[in-house]
């Protein structure tokens, strides 16, 4: 019997399955996941406990049973036959669908240098366990890539007594998605903790015990981790004739060029009217798009609209951001204990983005209110954003016209 089939049993896929049920779909719902066991969250993989990688299930067997959701774990999807509305599984079976969601995420970008097979990546619980079992006290770890994942991992491994070197091909760490003033503070903290960060370098080759750079410098390494970003998983969709553009192209309802097939999460590239294709790689985006896709699979007509929220914990510092945080900030709000928030306004004085850094959750409340301000699209004076005594919640009310 045909029903809803969701390929990808991660945060996005699981959210979609439960959202479809919550929206009244009473047919068959099947989750297909290529990893064995219950679905689990990815962010805790870079934040282990004393025993190693933290496995935090997204749902339980009882929760799935209560909503009559079938989980096919350890099963891959090999092919989509749009003519017969079936998915060919790695078991050899054909799984029919009424509507199909591709929540197949992204895969770590691979190094292309000689000896790249010696570098491990961090994407699965098995990856995490391998890293933490090797990164014992006194180990020399080289992390290639100075993005959020690379720096989060560096903070954890330094705390475990590792000598950590981070290699970055670009001119600065965190150059892609973190405002420069906040990135600089994070980098300074890493350096103070003993992390060696080297930018503008290219890896020539990796051996079992060292990383050699173009130019001849060699860095001893007991463990090498590649953290150079991810690429969306699109092969399954492309083979089925779906449009591809930095991901699986979907409209704002998360529907592909096949009206019965949707895509959401890291693999989805949303074609916004007037803004073009945009893809988001955050935990909150996987949740949000999953819920919207799930409701639409059940017959709703919801649309996805930014802003998207992100966070990163490194040492005792908490980084949070929402919306568009590129370019020069319009306003800086300084809070107690060296916490600070950067705000970004558009030409109409509407808030479009905010990012903050502080100890623990020092900026969490204000970033949550900034999220609401972005959605409200009200005009705001930069001076109010800069003044820490101004309650951001009050700015949600539009200023009366004279």
UniProtKB/TrEMBL annotation:
Any one Gene Ontology molecular-function term assigned to this protein's record: oxidoreductase activity, acting on NAD(P)H
Reductase C-terminal domain residues? 309-396
Q: Which Pfam families match?
A: Pyr_redox_2, Reductase_C
Entries under SUPFAM superfamilies matching the protein: FAD/NAD(P)-binding domain (SSF51905), FAD/NAD-linked reductases, dimerisation (C-terminal) domain (SSF55424)
Q: Flavoprotein as a keyword? A: yes
Domain of life from the UniProt record: Bacteria
Alphabetical UniProt keywords: FAD, Flavoprotein, Oxidoreductase
Q: Which InterPro entries match?
A: FAD-oxidoreductase/Apoptosis, FAD/NAD-bd_sf, FAD/NAD-binding_dom, FAD/NAD-linked_Rdtase_dimer_sf, Reductase_C
The EC number of this protein is 1.18.1.-
Q: Which cofactor does it need?
A: FAD
Listed under GO cellular component are:
cytoplasm
FAD/NAD(P)-binding domain mapped to chain residues = 4-290
Q: Which PANTHER family match?
A: APOPTOSIS-INDUCING FACTOR 1, RIESKE DOMAIN-CONTAINING PROTEIN-RELATED
- What protein does this entry describe? Rhodocoxin reductase
Q: Say which species the protein is native to.
A: Flavimaricola marinus
The gene name reads thcD_2
């Amino acid at each position: 019997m045909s029903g809803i089939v969701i390929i990808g049993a991660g945060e996005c896929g699981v959210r979609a399955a439960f959202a479809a049920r919550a929206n009244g779909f009473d047919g068959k719902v099947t989750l297909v996941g290529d990893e064995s066991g219950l679905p689990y969250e990815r962010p805790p993989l870079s934040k282990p406990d004393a025993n190693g990688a933290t496995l935090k299930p997204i749902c339980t067997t009882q929760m799935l049973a209560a909503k009559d959701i079938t989980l096919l774990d350890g099963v891959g999807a090999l092919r989509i036959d749009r003519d017969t509305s079936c998915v060919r599984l790695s078991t050899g079976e054909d799984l029919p669908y009424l509507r199909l969601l591709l929540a197949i995420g992204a895969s770590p970008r691979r190094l292309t240098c000689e000896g790249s097979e010696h570098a491990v990546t961090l994407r699965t619980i098995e990856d995490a366990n391998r890293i933490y079992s090797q990164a014992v006290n006194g180990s020399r770890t080289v992390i290639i890539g100075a993005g959020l994942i690379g720096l989060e991992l560096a903070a954890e491994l330094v705390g475990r007594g590792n000598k950590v070197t981070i290699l970055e091909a670009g001119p600065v760490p965190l150059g892609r998605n973190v405002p420069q003033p906040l990135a600089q503070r994070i980098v300074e903290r890493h350096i103070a903790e003993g992390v060696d960060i080297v930018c503008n370098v290219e890896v020539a080759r990796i051996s079992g015990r060292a990383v050699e750079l173009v130019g001849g410098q060699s860095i001893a390494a007991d463990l090498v981790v590649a953290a150079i970003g991810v690429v969306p998983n699109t092969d399954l969709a492309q083979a089925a004739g779906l449009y591809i553009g930095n991901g699986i192209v979907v409209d704002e309802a998360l529907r592909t060029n096949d009206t019965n097939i949707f895509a959401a999460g890291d693999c989805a590239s949303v074609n916004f009217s007037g803004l073009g294709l945009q893809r988001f790689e955050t935990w909150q985006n996987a949740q949000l798009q999953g819920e919207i896709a799930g409701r639409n699979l059940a017959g709703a007509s919801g649309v996805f609209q930014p802003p998207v929220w992100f966070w990163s914990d490194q040492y005792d510092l908490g980084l949070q951001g929402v919306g568009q945080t590129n370019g020069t900030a319009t306003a800086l709000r300084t809070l107690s204990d060296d916490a600070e928030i950067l705000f970004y306004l558009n030409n109409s004085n509407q808030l479009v983005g905010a990012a903050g850094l502080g100890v623990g959750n020092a900026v969490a409340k204000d970033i949550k209110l900034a999220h609401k301000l972005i959605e409200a699209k009200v005009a705001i004076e930069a001076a109010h954003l800069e003044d820490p005594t101004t309650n951001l919640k009050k700015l949600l009310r539009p200023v009366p016209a004279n």
